[in-house]
């Protein structure tokens, strides 16, 4: 398959808030998420409250069957402000300044969101905080068939991070699947919370880790797209299919880097037949 290069990813402009409700505009974004699974929107007006993104996500749910936004918590609602903070409480990895290796959002959920978006309010001015995305179908082509089969079996325990605990410590299932409404292979993955439950699962997880590590003979860099801060500038939005792309972030170097995230379209994670 052909992996879109950065120049191939649809990039749209929104000149006014009302574009978020225009069918041609929202239809183009929906088509991009169905196709390559990634889109960028440049906002050409101030929007510190992310009202454009709120209206857009509601419109995608109403007119394109994307489903409802996820509520992050009773106090945060749909939006989650992603910025470095110091706290003694359990902290989400995205709220630290350390790098965040390849993962999908909410991989510990039985019904993870299909989509997420990030509104860049203040890009990293110090050369860090680069978002990268990895095309799942292209990357997994490099795995041995036996490894793919192992990843498709429900032989993995996925632990819920303490900061997202809701009374369930873990779920058990497969890591790759194929859904009727999804294009190609889909995945849930975050290495630091996955425990293999068999020797085959352990070997498969190790091979995936080697594939995702930079510098190996079979690494997946040709399936990778990097969105540096000069690409995702202030007041841009990146939208992504959370089931068809892994994403990662390098170390945040700017203490006031600030993104706002929303996730939507929860679907049961379906195993391969």
Structure report:
By secondary structure, the protein is α+β, with helices and mostly antiparallel strands. It is built from five helices and 15 strands. The protein has helices at 23-34, 51-64, 136-140, 145-151, 199-212, and strands spanning 11-14, 38-43, 80-82, 100-103, 113-122, 131-135, 156-159, 170-173, 176-177, 186-187, 194-196, 224-227, 236-241, 245-249, 258-266. It has a six-stranded mixed beta sheet, with helices on one face. A hairpin with an 8-residue loop joins strand 9 (176-177) and strand 10. The longest helix is centred in the first third of the chain and has 14 residues, at 51-64. The model has no long low-confidence stretch (mean pLDDT 89).
């Amino acid at each position: 398959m052909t992996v879109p290069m950065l120049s191939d990813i649809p990039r749209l402009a929104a000149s006014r808030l009302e574009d978020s409700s225009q069918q041609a505009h929202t239809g183009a974004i929906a088509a991009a998420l169905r196709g390559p699974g990634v889109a960028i929107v440049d906002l050409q007006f101030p929007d510190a409250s992310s009202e454009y993104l709120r209206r857009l996500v509601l419109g995608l749910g109403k007119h394109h069957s994307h489903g409802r936004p996820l509520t992050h918590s009773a106090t945060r609602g749909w939006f989650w402000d992603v910025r470095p903070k110091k706290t003694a409480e359990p902290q989400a990895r995205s709220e630290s300044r350390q790098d965040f290796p390849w993962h999908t959002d909410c991989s510990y959920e039985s019904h993870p969101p299909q989509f997420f978006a990030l509104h860049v309010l203040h890009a990293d001015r110090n050369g860090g905080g680069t978002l990268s995305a990895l095309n799942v179908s292209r990357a997994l082509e490099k795995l041995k068939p036996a490894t793919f089969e192992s990843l498709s079996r429900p032989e993995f325990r996925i632990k819920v991070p303490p900061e997202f605990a809701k009374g369930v410590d873990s779920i058990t299932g497969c890591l790759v699947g194929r859904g009727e409404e999804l294009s190609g292979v889909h995945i849930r993955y975050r290495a630091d919370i996955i425990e293999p439950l068999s020797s085959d699962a352990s070997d498969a997880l190790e091979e995936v880790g080697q594939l995702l590590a930079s510098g190996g003979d079979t690494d997946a860099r040709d399936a990778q797209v990097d969105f540096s801060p000069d690409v995702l500038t202030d007041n841009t939005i990146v939208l992504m299919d959370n089931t068809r792309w892994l994403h990662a972030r390098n170390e945040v170097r700017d203490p006031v880097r600030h993104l706002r995230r929303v996730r939507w379209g929860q679907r049961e994670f379906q195993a391969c037949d």
